[in-house]
Protein 1
Amino acid sequence: MSSSIKEQIELANQLAVQRMMESDPVWEGVGIARETIPNMREFMLLHAGPPIEWARMSGPMKGAVIGAILYEGWATDEDEAHKIADSGKITFEPNHLHSCVAPMAGIISPSMPVLIIRDRKFGINTYSNLNEGLGKVLRYGAYSPDVIHTLIWIRDTLSRTLGATMSEVKEKKTGVAIKPIIAQALTMGDECHNRLNAATSLILREITPYMLSASIDKVSLYESYEFMNQNNFTALNLVMAAAKAMTLAAHNIDYCTVVTVLTRNGTDAAIWVSGLDQEWFVAPAPVPKGVWFPGYSEKDANPDIGDSAITETAGFGGFAMAAAPSIVSWVGGSVAYAIENTQKMYEITQTRNSNFLIPFLDSQGTPTGIDVRKIVRTGITPTINTGIAHKNPGVGQIGAGLVAFPLELFKAALKGYAQRYGI
Amino acid sequence: MSSSIKEQIELANQLAVQRMMESDPVWEGVGIARETIPNMREFMLLHAGPPIEWARMSGPMKGAVIGAILYEGWATDEDEAHKIADSGKITFEPNHLHSCVAPMAGIISPSMPVLIIRDRKFGINTYSNLNEGLGKVLRYGAYSPDVIHTLIWIRDTLSRTLGATMSEVKEKKTGVAIKPIIAQALTMGDECHNRLNAATSLILREITPYMLSASIDKVSLYESYEFMNQNNFTALNLVMAAAKAMTLAAHNIDYCTVVTVLTRNGTDAAIWVSGLDQEWFVAPAPVPKGVWFPGYSEKDANPDIGDSAITETAGFGGFAMAAAPSIVSWVGGSVAYAIENTQKMYEITQTRNSNFLIPFLDSQGTPTGIDVRKIVRTGITPTINTGIAHKNPGVGQIGAGLVAFPLELFKAALKGYAQRYGI
């Protein structure tokens, strides 16, 4: 490789992380997917990870698809839902092709409410769905009547409460800025992927005054507050959509070797690289090493699933584990491991984040801007904090843990890069 | 000292920390001082620290006394307030003699609302006032009309909102348990004396559902939520009253050398020892080393003031600095210093707290149960995180910092102990 190309890459990568750090995503509103997400249409289901057809989908994703079909009323029972899913009538597309991200199976159907995030700096919109809570929930592949009931309540009550709240917010300002919330949460023991206790608290503190001044009936107000309050993952989908905005800001820069998507659909893991458009580099998704809910073990686990690794792509989550020593009781490992892991991630990233600081490392910025070249050179792969789904449809979450993205993905991407740029 | 006395002391100290850790303070309600605090009466003002007469009071305490006199309507202007304060008409008594604690000047007047904490384990009640926010506030010695106006709003609106909220709480449970909030906050970057961002968030999350279901008009609800939400010290007075309950549970144990009160009135610093009843050991209060608000420096600073060192007495605050690396930007020092300081406090304490864990030290319990003997033996004195008041009345807060309690206090206490127990 000539030194001028090396310089070009360096400049491109610098620009990428600069844009990632300048990105300023604010939560602006709530909409209905089909009316809000670009190119979303009837009989389309968005999903986590790279493209996949029904036949190859993992158990939890199939479960979530069945649930979404029942929720949409496209079928009235499980058998019929199976048939429709298999009939070709439904178009399956990755969230990432719609500036969207969603945790675990990540199924978004046309009538689901979605969070609207706007990057004030670069004018891009991104989206996510509303978090349903823990345990037996659609995103982990559960689809029993109570799961569907919660989704309906989210559509009819929670999303309307939040819609009215966000209208109040918009009277006063452009929206709820998410980066300062992530930054503060990192000083409060969160890494903002698998621990969001502080981020959820801060979001609630931020929006509650607007909830109180909005015109919302007392029951909806109470139920909506309690639903979000009882779920420390309430903030997850917001920070994911914000991370999607940050990484989109770094995407599509010529010569850039920075990773802008890390994602998995429960069957395959995949990445995008900034300088390689929307080309998917794909490898089998690994099974996370986990801390298991009682009665479950690794043999029950589905391979890694979800768009949530967008948090690590944007420089937090697993990359900020040193900020969250309590996370180790949830995903396994020791405090020393958490620090060591963050330290290792500096070896495969472009810079230290100027927004996201780790108090325990004397307020050093988090490792940010994953560089494909550095991964291939060092053999160190990105560590992701993740939830773990049962491999069968209909069960739900069985644990949480850590997973390393497969090295071969990054090797394939570097090969693709060499071909594309004729190096 | 005979070995049997040593054993007796060891048993007494073990019992003291066991009781301190078993204490289970819950926030149970809000009352008016004169109707709530035992032996509180008209023309009595409670104050922080050991007993002190008007003439010897420091600037900020005098300022707070003037403010309280104006608030009570005992005088209509500053001059008249001065005269009354000096007339002997007002009885000044330490909060600690009334199972009460309050930050900084700690002035509590008869018509002020107070928080009621009940120790579910030992049946003791403790009290504190409601936090007024930062800057120009009574507890820092300010008494301008806006300060008094806020106190009146606290009495007429906030305390009623909280009263109605606590009535809702009491329909469902005995109260809001404070220890789990402190324990969680220590995993979220608080040390719960000078950083209470997480504790305040958690308290708000805990009470908001009850606020929403109580019968409170919309304006009071909004104003009260926002007032507490805008002040990350909202939780301080609650955790202080809880700490008072914990330390009272350890008080009055024969032979016990554990410190149960550390406090200062801005002129003197003082301690109680469990085995020595309510005997005050007193020495001049030191001036904290601080981080100064713009325009101020050490020469403006009043000597250390407030009952808030009850947090360190109960095993958190400065003793848990290693849990709160972000605190160093507020009180000065480095992360390494914060860890080193917590480590040092183990040398002067009886045990590791079974409730309060420090995630970053692999979830080791905080140093708990300050032992007078160990302080005198090692020369290490308790480190307190504290706010700093201007030395003149009427100004307010000018910084925050660290202060070490004077060694001579503990030497005097050990001497008193030897006399009392004939050792």
Protein 2
Amino acid sequence: MLNRPIGIIDSGVGGLTVAYEVMRQLPKENFIYLGDTLRCPYGSKNKDEIFEYTLEMVEFMLKKDIKLLIIACNTATAYTLEYLQENINIPIIGVIKPGARAAIKTTIKNNVGVIATEATINSNAYKKTLEKINPDIFVINKACPDFVPMIEAGFIKGSKTERIVESTLSSLNNEKIDTLILGCTHYPLIKEVIQKKMNKKIKIISSGEETAREASAILEYYGLINQSTHNPTYNFYTTGNSMFFSNLANNLFKQSLNSVESIVIENVKI
Amino acid sequence: MLNRPIGIIDSGVGGLTVAYEVMRQLPKENFIYLGDTLRCPYGSKNKDEIFEYTLEMVEFMLKKDIKLLIIACNTATAYTLEYLQENINIPIIGVIKPGARAAIKTTIKNNVGVIATEATINSNAYKKTLEKINPDIFVINKACPDFVPMIEAGFIKGSKTERIVESTLSSLNNEKIDTLILGCTHYPLIKEVIQKKMNKKIKIISSGEETAREASAILEYYGLINQSTHNPTYNFYTTGNSMFFSNLANNLFKQSLNSVESIVIENVKI
């Protein structure tokens, strides 16, 4: 039972930043990854679409007998986590609360910036989560609609990337924030560029790292840590073209994925 | 129900490093703190004594209708956490796993040092916890029997403190560790001296900060975050002299405690 896989779902390849942290921080765990590349990005979709697409991914995962589900997409987390936690009988972790908690631990001035997709920012999920825990935290939200398409197009460094990052984020340097949450799992891929363009003193929180750690806590708490000494297995699925997914993952992460399978999930709407 | 307090227990004043982090990271939560100052330090006691004393503290806490228990003492965590989690019907968090998880996230070379009391080191709890999650982590243990008596005697800086810290820890600088866990909740009080005496590149993990954060995760996960807008209340109890406890806390933390009550817990043995 303990060697059942963790399920990781995302709108595309961004959630791989979470998957790699799971590999690193939980090296005994098996996982299955599903990226809904066909319908990516979720950040510009409406609430009903995000809800429907995410539920379809969850159904796919539940058939794989996962022991824990990680919603490795901030937008999907913002719109579905509460519903899923109420209706599905396995532990489920999103990426928003772990990032929020890390920011609460890190901030000294209680001034936190959040950058994310339009849909995540519109959901106000980070602000609500931060304020629910600490009402004295002041939150500055900033939507970055260009970042996911830019990253999915392979631009993670160089002058074009720097120009887009700078023009999107420069106004944040005038705020009093001492902590910045990367509220989209794609953003760790451009973390160096973001750090370069932001005030040096601002500490950057990557939800991915924090989510892997919180997954570890929840697995431990439920007595679900894998005890097998076999090498872990990782299976990757995409709703898009498997070669495209592999190549993009290789380009972005400089690490090759062993097996990527292209799948059709029920009711896929493009 | 949600405004029920968190219970925090420790062998003495060291657990206040956890309590202050709970105040900071969970500012809406009420808590009750109990320090078993009369029988401190636990680090030099045997297994049966540690077990018995901790259970007496837990019984006191359960009568206070707490919603979550934090064992803010590494030694007590090492010897009782598993038993308590199996036998008591509220969520219980120790300080070892949160510190271990933070170290796993932080270490790059998979080489981690642990400093703690003799009893904690002898339990091998950190090594077991780290290796359970990541078998490739190499752990160097170092018992520091002089630190708790030194801190409880009020020495947290100055030449005497520096001399003791240096002579205890200097051998660790020859190891390949890149991360050092403060495996005793007293040790954050001498964190600056420790950092000064250790190789600059070694990152220091304070279980207290990490435990408060993991408490936040568990409360959130169980839907137990306090929603009241009243100012939180903090009650402090000691098995020793309340004035002594207050003064020591004031000296160590430069923050005064509102109410400290001296109590007798059942079967107290000196």
Protein 3
Amino acid sequence: MSVDVTALERQARRSLPAAVYDYFAGGSGREQTLRASEAAWREVALLPRVLRDVSRVDTSTEVSSASLRTPVGVAPTAFHGLAHPDGELATAAGAAAAGALYVMSTRSSRRIEDCAAATAAAGGTWWFQAYVMRDRELTAGLVRRAAAAGAAAIVLTGDTPVVGRKRRDRGDSVVTEAMFRANIGPDADLGAAEQAADVTFADIGWLGELSGLPVIVKGVLRPGDALACAGHGAAGVIVSNHGGRQLDGAIAPARALPGVVAALRDTPRCEVFADGGLRTGEDVLAALALGARAVFVGRPVLWALACGGAGCVRDLLTGLTTDLGHAMALAGAARIADLDGLAAADLDGLAAADLAAADLAAVDPSPR
Amino acid sequence: MSVDVTALERQARRSLPAAVYDYFAGGSGREQTLRASEAAWREVALLPRVLRDVSRVDTSTEVSSASLRTPVGVAPTAFHGLAHPDGELATAAGAAAAGALYVMSTRSSRRIEDCAAATAAAGGTWWFQAYVMRDRELTAGLVRRAAAAGAAAIVLTGDTPVVGRKRRDRGDSVVTEAMFRANIGPDADLGAAEQAADVTFADIGWLGELSGLPVIVKGVLRPGDALACAGHGAAGVIVSNHGGRQLDGAIAPARALPGVVAALRDTPRCEVFADGGLRTGEDVLAALALGARAVFVGRPVLWALACGGAGCVRDLLTGLTTDLGHAMALAGAARIADLDGLAAADLDGLAAADLAAADLAAVDPSPR
Amino acid sequence: MSVDVTALERQARRSLPAAVYDYFAGGSGREQTLRASEAAWREVALLPRVLRDVSRVDTSTEVSSASLRTPVGVAPTAFHGLAHPDGELATAAGAAAAGALYVMSTRSSRRIEDCAAATAAAGGTWWFQAYVMRDRELTAGLVRRAAAAGAAAIVLTGDTPVVGRKRRDRGDSVVTEAMFRANIGPDADLGAAEQAADVTFADIGWLGELSGLPVIVKGVLRPGDALACAGHGAAGVIVSNHGGRQLDGAIAPARALPGVVAALRDTPRCEVFADGGLRTGEDVLAALALGARAVFVGRPVLWALACGGAGCVRDLLTGLTTDLGHAMALAGAARIADLDGLAAADLDGLAAADLAAADLAAVDPSPR
Amino acid sequence: MSVDVTALERQARRSLPAAVYDYFAGGSGREQTLRASEAAWREVALLPRVLRDVSRVDTSTEVSSASLRTPVGVAPTAFHGLAHPDGELATAAGAAAAGALYVMSTRSSRRIEDCAAATAAAGGTWWFQAYVMRDRELTAGLVRRAAAAGAAAIVLTGDTPVVGRKRRDRGDSVVTEAMFRANIGPDADLGAAEQAADVTFADIGWLGELSGLPVIVKGVLRPGDALACAGHGAAGVIVSNHGGRQLDGAIAPARALPGVVAALRDTPRCEVFADGGLRTGEDVLAALALGARAVFVGRPVLWALACGGAGCVRDLLTGLTTDLGHAMALAGAARIADLDGLAAADLDGLAAADLAAADLAAVDPSPR
């Protein structure tokens, strides 16, 4: 391994205030989903191919029409200013330097336009993650600014009508109001900036028209929901349980992914991504082998930020990509497309397939 | 979480005599069923829905024709006087204040009529749990009193022809004779008040006619038994292994529930409930997602009683309901009916369905 | 529980020389099968029935045409003289006093006739377990003596063509030559008394003709073998892995039992028994629920012998029977026949059924 | 057990420098595959047969037309000179003395011809394991020398286009350049001697023509790959994950074996072997029962070498063979062919069969 995320986390933990570390590291409820999500990737049995020419391994991929050097991107996480003085500027620069897709959070501690500039300076691609807020005009404003600043897509967070309760929370003290107001501005009503609980599939279309950009829905775990997203015009879904921070007990992405992939098999214009618990090149390979087009890492980026800012973020993403390439060679896969079918169809996978069939039978995808 | 039952139990344990704590906490035999029942709810993988309007989450439900603010009720447990001086009066008042159904135990340390008055004072609904005793007239007397005092249903305990042996038992010394005689009176023969071992499906009808009330059978784990209960006129079944206090080795409610729900799918007048090992809002959500119409908690109520009487019982039930509502929002379910199908059809679930088919093939439901 | 075998073993361990304890307690190889066999009974999920009249629970059963008060018998184990000065005389007397079937070992430290007399004195039933020795006449002599002394059946040990290697063995020093010669006599060649490695299905017939008694084969784990035994005239098979002392890695009896029961469903004259790892009344209930007609306990009898001779053996067997009866009442089973189908058809069970089908397809049962 | 590999490893660990021990013992990545491979053999449930004549147990077998006294051979591992001054000369002599097949590594610390002479002196059979190096002429030279020296087959390593990263690595310091150059000679370019990453199925034919010998492909885990190897003329495949030293997360051999065996059922000229994690006679029996024709052990040979050179290697292999023979007798198998079907068709096995079907449907076996 050229990357050791466990060591990185250990180092970050030493340098961060305990409350900040817990804010980033914690999950909701009994943290069952948090733990299970990381473990589930390791339980995917891999079936490498032999005697393939892997003298040139290519980790590049195309995501939502953009060419990327790596399928490992940065998941949206809140308030990078807590991890490093440069905050999201460092994240953006590090991701772009690694050729990795950067998903900018609505809850950034730096202004959208500044993060965009940091990405653009290094030739990077970025998406904007939108929470639909109680005051939709507030959201619309941010989305329009993101589109104007060069976002390539809008990520609609589908799994956060309310915020999960974290067992490690010590109140909200780690996030300053200044940080919270970085993008909504000094005058916005804080309550109006909270997540709306009435976000529905119709908002996919709303955000698409507003921005003129592809819309990707994050937090999808059910085959039927994935098909409904596609039916409402989504360009992709991210199989995610929000890093174990929303519904505790929610299924691990590794277990939900096969069902979602099966549901969208005949709908290639809606791409499938995954995040949650990925820590090594082999984990990434497992996710791609189960059918994800690309993946995102969240907490590891925060640890890298805390340890060394932009350079360390770049090294993390470059390292994971190197490790993925190495694992691809070991697996007999010269290109990412060669990873298809590399994971053993295990029993969970079969259950997921059954689930897909059952769930889809009950869905009205409401084609747009 | 707004409720932490583990912390509540810890606090109660400190304040209760060890023998009383063990009397409440213990299970039968190797306590396998006790442990497995709690663990099994956590093993239910949940598949939350996204992009649903959950701006108004409604936890209210209708149970056996009664409207309730919450599907979390109080399971019948014995001798609350051991946990708090006010005993069942506190339980009744706390449950009613939370809008929760209270199932009063035959083995109450307070008189039926007094508990009923405490419930009525706060506008609550209650059921009366009946052990059929060796002297059936003793049972009949209690049931008639319960009906006269305003019970909404009779719960027939089906799983206690004899009493399970608890490994933590130190004799019966914790229960005083005065407590035992609270409802059967000073003159009743104690042997005659023990559980009858010849209770059968016919007693569903007997209790129904006696009381003029719906009869719900508690302790049902088999699909075939559930159908037989319905055939004999039961208005509901409670999937339960008596809190792990009867047959050690009995299946966990979370594993038995899908089979029972499948068996009664076409018999909606016979409702399905569950108890045993539920400790959080997510656990409750899992049970409802597997098809339970409502659930009951036993030991947590005892810990709350011991920690703070009626107020603490109310807070426990209100807290669990709040947590359930929060989990429902996270799961994309605005109403309890929306929880249907939210649990992944895992392998145990499939086995349960097979079991239902096999068990039902062997049943003569003896329609009433 | 009225019986606590774990405590009994602890007490026996304190009173026995360490080498003797290890001789009795140990298993072969890594002791995987030893451990798994005990664990597997606990993993059988039970589905008790409710609302059955269990005011009179009857644990009596009929085994190979003999009426017994209990389905819990004594498995054949070697050299009880190591556990108690009275050796098998105490075992025989204790078993008979409990109304339990006693399977006398070829490797008894007391003479067949003396053990038979001890059984007869208390009105007991016994079977004789035969190893086919290299010198078959030696075996024939023992079997004829057993038949003459009143054995009700011959148990042919099918799983011991050679002796498994125990990891706890410190040589054979615990067994004295005098003990070994108790039944084969002072002049027999010790090598000739070792197990023959060429025992086959044909020996079922040989032993039957020799003794005029029913022959039961011990050590059967495969459905196909069970059917072949029946085809060669066996009156029963004991599903057993020799207490984890022969092939390490062999399947646990609880997992093999359903397949064997399925194979012999249409051959009722060949009864199915089980032994290995049974420690409580609930374990016994699980075995009967999976289709065993009766069960045998080995090591617990040795611990009882060591702790208190005949009286303690009687108390062990009576206690297990009481516990079984109690568990039956809790399970809604008034008679042993009512236990059929009480175990959940779990995934292992399904695998066993598949196995039965596959194994049977490959068998030529060679009808006699 | 006559062999205790755990004790042997403990002893070797004490006598070897820590870096050398780690070099031999370590695996790649999180060492998940390393651990899982050993555990998986123990999880194979065995179903011994009873009442078979096993008075003469024969462990001999025929492998690729050669008669061998044992199906337990020596897997190719690198640089035995690190374990013992005699290096591969001791390994070769010990294997031959045990009648076991010796697979000589390309990375031997002794010259091919010298190892061959040591094997021939004891009447042994050996195969030559070839890495295809970047300079194919270097490989061709070694293969021609091996053929001239009497190799019976060429083993093409299929799973090492690049070298897995070991977490215990402390750099390459344990391997001296002199050792590395033992066979490629003093003048060869070290880079040219590294593994080629463009080895393909076509190289099976290349090596076969070059050597005039059967070619066996090592590292095959997929049914489809096995069929493709056969289609390109391979005489066998070794189901292997390179001892957990290549792709971490790769499936355990015990889980992959049934699928490969199923794929080649109708292609008997392509034999199936297995290695990885086998430590006891029972493990070997499990592998043969799952359909392997022979197996190979790697690390245990290194521990034996370190503990006592050729004699200890001979004792290890003879001991494992004795233990296998003993286990065969306990399993009712007089010949290796009798082991077929001895392993319970467990759920993993069923999944593997499903996998075989799915994988084969996607393969173009490119018949030669």
Protein 4
Amino acid sequence: MSNEYEISERNKVRQVREKAAYDRKTVHGILDAGIVAHAAFVQDGEPVVVPMLYGRDGETLYLHGARKARVIRLLEATGRACINVTLTDGLVFARSAFASSMNYRSVTAFGTARLVEQLEDKKHALAVISEHAMPGRRAELRDSHENELRMTGVVAVEIESASAKISDKMPDDEDCDLDTPVWGGVLPLETRFTTLQADDLVSEGVEPSAALKAMEGTKL
Amino acid sequence: MSNEYEISERNKVRQVREKAAYDRKTVHGILDAGIVAHAAFVQDGEPVVVPMLYGRDGETLYLHGARKARVIRLLEATGRACINVTLTDGLVFARSAFASSMNYRSVTAFGTARLVEQLEDKKHALAVISEHAMPGRRAELRDSHENELRMTGVVAVEIESASAKISDKMPDDEDCDLDTPVWGGVLPLETRFTTLQADDLVSEGVEPSAALKAMEGTKL
């Protein structure tokens, strides 16, 4: 397998091309850092976009919803999907409105979606999604009941084509704007887990596991 | 105008309906709190989703990109758009994989897109977008040059239909799972502006404005 996704009309980044990357390592890194994916489908000729929990296993993205959720039915019906994962890293305060922008990490992936139906395949897919969002947690929990698995809809999207865009910079002002007495710089925007909050039902003496404690304070 | 969006096949929330809201106040509140919108379009019969900066003016969403960006050309060509804004508020660690979930605020809006072409309209739209992402900043900057306005693509989407979904809860475990010695609760996920970082070109004595300072430490 090539280290890069092939560049086609579909995944080619047309704007600000110097920010584009097509290598699998960069694409996978952003997919692994995100927490919610935006999945787009076509329904009756019209676009629909839905936020979903997800996980990655090689070149397969697993997306998770209720079995009867519209997104699951749509994916089943249409097959084609476009998925975007974006992390917002800050606002770039340039000295003109035109040069002002945002810092971000973003991946857009295109692929064919299929419903995951076999219980064993579904278990695997859900383990991948759980491990992505809540690393180490799955091993602390009982096995899923068969009816729970049946009530859960899982879609697998094989990534056929993808691109990443990363912007991580200070303002890029025109020389003629630099004389103005206007402040320029960046205001970082962080998405970070804070501190675990127990519910009222935790049995006495039960503490969060090391895996859960390790998530506190971490940044996406 | 009604205080609620009409419920139709398109915007009806089918899963976990108790989390759904159709009132304009809730929908507008989430749109105003977000920073990036995911806009979906159809291109050659296939879905495309793109993250975009945006702003809201009444029932109009303005989305911003380069004039030649795919998303702008697509919107111009197809007209129909679906836009989602999602804020991720935390992970819900239940005592089963099935009951584990996420806390979030999310809006999905459907509407017809049109290209904003007149320079005066574009100025207004860009002011709305700027005020949304960087409140108070536009007034500190010089007026946009006409060529800058021409190089900027702006799309307006009139919201025809929308729904909100909010999940803000502790685990909702089955009774039979409560005896297990497994910790349950929530790990909040915050998206927060940190501290302004000046670039190397700030003139001596120039400090960030009160408007910029006011953004430091604020949470989406």
